[in-house]
TrEMBL record:
GO molecular function annotation: hydroxymethylglutaryl-CoA lyase activity; metal ion binding
A Pfam entry, by short name: HMGL-like
Lineage of producing organism: Bacteria, Pseudomonadati, Pseudomonadota, Betaproteobacteria, Burkholderiales
Pyruvate carboxyltransferase domain segment(s): 8-276
Gene3D superfamilies, A to Z: Aldolase class I
Domain of life: Bacteria
The organism of origin for this protein: Bordetella genomosp. 7
PANTHER family in the record: HYDROXYMETHYLGLUTARYL-COA LYASE
Name listed for the protein in its UniProt record: Hydroxymethylglutaryl-CoA lyase
Any single biological process term in GO: ketone body biosynthetic process
């Protein structure tokens, strides 16, 4: 798997990470429309949903129905689904999913809170799910969550993250997604973390997943890029947060990362005005103000033909 160093591959996780935690029920049609708008904006990869227990995450109960629509309408889109175990994998396969993501947290307590198993069992379940997914011919991602700090156990030892990333790589994950679940990382740590991780996993197969709790997600994304990473997760409008990780805000906003990439000579194929339409749609559906750090400037910049020239 080789990659152009001048290209950034963004997976928009808003439909899963962003919507899993919403207080109001979001109809399947609205999820589909958000995915359509992302696709129309040029986003080539989305995490569309999760096949998890509907008791644990009621918002994702319509995973199969949503995926069937996505495949029918947008056959060219890379649309992955998070699966916590073999049951989730089987449900995903039955719905025609071609890419799945498993989630392994780096601490005992975070695994227990998130998927009701300890670290050892979670590692085994992720490995067996990855192996089974590969036998089915699916593309696979493996998250290593709380890779910087755990809301229950404090700072995560970089060696633990390395060991788990290597285990997921050995189990055949095509992509290892290093996740800053509660958004507590800072660029210096990110750079050293990823420089170490590159020794365990080929950098082409590493991805970074930041949450913007402290406003540093874009800076952290840039540090990962400086360490050679070219795959980033983001969520349009910065929608999101993990229901089982107290204090976690939404993801790095897709529009912030695209703006950063454009200004830095990295191609994304994603249109900023297209993303603004997706943000506006999500705001209307969810009844809340959304948008990353750059949203006010972007709205002025792309407000229409009368918009002020983009100088500052
Ligand atoms: P459990 O209760 O321990 O599971 O939950 P169980 O195996 O004892 O089964 C209990 C019931 O759930 C049974 O049904 C199973 O069939 C069913 P019953 O007999 O009671 O009718 N079940 C399932 N149903 C649907 N789909 C499944 C499934 N598995 C079992 N896949 C379980 C364990 C893992 C299922 C549960 O804890 C769960 O679903 N957790 C998911 C939590 C989640 O979605 N968290 C958010 C995603 S992770 C995240 O956001 C972080 C990330 O963004 C990266 C970052 O930022 O760090 C990825
Ligand atoms: Mg997340």
């Amino acid at each position: 798997m080789s990659m152009n160093p001048d290209t950034l591959i963004i997976t928009d996780v808003a439909p899963r990470d962003g919507l899993q935690n919403q207080q109001v029920a979001v109809p399947t049609e609205a999820k589909l429309e958000l995915i359509r708008l992302l696709h129309a904006a040029g986003v080539a990869s989305v995490e569309a949903t999760s096949f998890v227990s509907p008791k644990a995450v009621p918002q994702m109960a319509d995973a199969a129905e949503l995926m069937e629509h996505v495949h029918r309408e947008l056959p060219g889109l890379r649309a992955s689904a998070l699966v916590p175990n073999l049951k989730g994998l089987q449900r995903a396969q039955a719905a025609g999913v071609r890419e799945v993501a498993v989630v392994l947290s780096a601490t005992e307590t975070m695994n227990l809170k998130n998927i009701n198993m300890g670290l050892a069992q979670a590692t085994e379940v992720c490995e067996e799910t990855l192996l089974a997914a590969r036998k089915m011919g699916l593309r696979t991602r493996a998250y290593v969550a709380v890779a910087f700090d755990c809301p229950f156990e404090g700072p995560t030892a970089p060696d633990t993250v390395l060991r788990l990333a290597a285990a997921m790589h050995r189990a055949g994950a095509d992509e290892i997604v290093i996740a800053d679940t509660i958004g507590s990382a800072a660029p210096g740590r990110v750079k050293t973390h990823f420089e170490a991780l590159r020794q365990a996993v080929p950098v082409d197969q590493l991805a970074a997943h930041f949450h913007d709790t402290r406003g540093l997600a874009a800076a952290n994304a840039w540090a990962a890029i400086e360490a050679g990473v070219r795959r980033l997760d983001a969520s349009v409008g910065g929608i999101g947060g993990c229901p089982f990780a107290p204090g976690a805000a939404g993801n790095a906003a897709t529009e912030d990362l695209v703006l950063m990439a454009e200004g830095s000579g990295l191609a994304t194929q994603i249109s900023l005005p297209g993303l603004l339409q997706a943000v506006a749609y999500a705001e209307a559906r969810l009844g809340m103000n959304l948008g990353g750090r750059s949203i006010k400037w972007l709205r002025r910049r792309y407000a229409g033909p009368e918009a002020a020239p983009a100088r500052t």
